[in-house]
From TrEMBL:
This is Methyltransferase type 11 domain-containing protein. Residues 180-240 form the Methyltransferase type domain. InterPro entries: Methyltransf_11 (IPR013216), SAM-dependent_MTases_sf (IPR029063). GO terms for molecular function: S-adenosylmethionine-dependent methyltransferase activity. It holds the Pfam family Methyltransf_11. The lineage of its organism: Eukaryota, Viridiplantae, Streptophyta, Embryophyta, Tracheophyta. It comes from Paspalum vaginatum. PANTHER family: OSJNBB0011N17.9 PROTEIN, S-ADENOSYL-L-METHIONINE-DEPENDENT METHYLTRANSFERASES SUPERFAMILY PROTEIN.
Length: 306
């Protein structure tokens, strides 16, 4: 069962969530998150520059008719997903549009503490997982392709690859060794806090695919990490960042917890764009039952060949 707190609700649409993780995933990624007593600075309740940019991009993507509610809700209108639309014909600002505080978090304690206890759970519902696995079955290199290497970044005890999927090298990177040890698709793993050390301990041009499931929102140095992803990907190598609308909100970055699904696609797209060396990022909405079960979105790009 899924455990991450959904945006603006504690109980998912398919029934009650387990209580085990309420202590860490207790409430949603909501703008109404309470300010903790120890917080010296007020938590931003709305976006600054980023919001303006995201809004204007959204308006452009929807033919000028968009408003913030429409963007944040990310519900397909007339069959068009705002999450997909928002990365169509983007005119990226010249400068990286985010401020350092956009990458601050409610809980700034060491991530090693938060992830010290293994969580043998899933973080999105079964329908979303099925949709992701189906997507992977269409885009990942066929099982047992000689020479293929895959990195599952921010991995756990599951990678959601198709059943029986194998490659010579599938590396998992994550925060909890017990979880990674139990992930049967991995051929090796690395425990590393990417917010402390964003350098990926791999050679240049050594991976064909990088996956990252419901975790891009925890990266506080995303551009450093994405530049590293570009470095280790082979030319035309594929990076697949997937996300839903759930998160450990205390550990997700501020710009994520104060924006909606389509904004999230724009944010991840921006990471690809401003890291350089990637083809224009694309979004795919693979939500299995829009509005009824967990949504599932992909933002992907490939490393430029020249
Ligand atoms: C919500 S879980 C998702 C795990 C897995 N991808 C899945 O789909 O089940 C978030 C994951 O992000 C990873 N993560 C969070 N903060 C991290 C950090 N600072 N450095 C590296 N990985 C991190 C952890 O390994 C954790 O398992």
């Amino acid at each position: 069962m899924a455990t991450l707190a959904p945006r603006c609700r504690l109980l998912g649409p398919t029934g009650p969530r387990p209580t085990a993780l309420r202590a860490c995933a207790a409430v949603s990624c909501s703008r109404r998150a309470p300010v903790p007593p120890h917080a010296a600075r007020p938590r931003r309740v709305f976006l600054g520059l980023g919001a303006t940019l995201i809004d204007s991009v959204a308006r452009m993507a929807s033919g000028g008719t968009s408003d913030r509610t429409f963007v944040a809700g990310a519900r397909p209108r007339q069959g068009v997903s705002p999450v997909v639309q928002i990365l169509k014909n983007v005119e990226w600002p010249d400068e990286f549009p985010f401020k350092p505080e956009d990458f601050s978090r409610f809980d700034e304690s060491a991530d090693t503490l938060f992830y010290s206890v293994p969580r043998f759970v899933t973080h999105i519902d079964d329908e979303a997982i099925r949709a992701l696995t189906q997507y992977y079955s269409e885009v990942l290199p066929p099982s047992n392709t000689p020479g293929v290497a895959i990195l599952d970044m921010c991995s756990s005890w599951v990678s959601h690859y198709p059943p029986g999927y194998k490659q010579e090298k599938i590396v998992g990177m994550g925060m909890n060794e017990d979880e990674l040890k139990r992930n049967s698709v991995l051929t090796e793993y690395v425990v590393q806090d990417l917010n402390v050390n964003p350098n990926l301990p791999f050679e240049d041009n050594s991976f064909d695919v990088i996956t990252n499931v419901v975790s891009v929102d925890y990266l506080t140095k995303p551009i450093d990490v994405f530049k590293e992803m570009r470095r280790i990907l082979r030319p035309a190598g594929l990076a697949i960042m997937s996300f839903s609308n759930r998160c450990f909100w205390t550990k997700a970055i501020s710009i994520w917890t104060s924006t909606g699904d389509a904004d999230h696609a724009w944010i991840v797209g921006a990471y690809f764009h401003y890291s350089g060396g990637f083809e224009p990022p694309q979004a795919v909405d693979i939500s299995p039952n829009p509005g009824r079960t967990d949504p599932m979105y992909i933002v992907y790009s490939t490393k430029k060949t020249v």
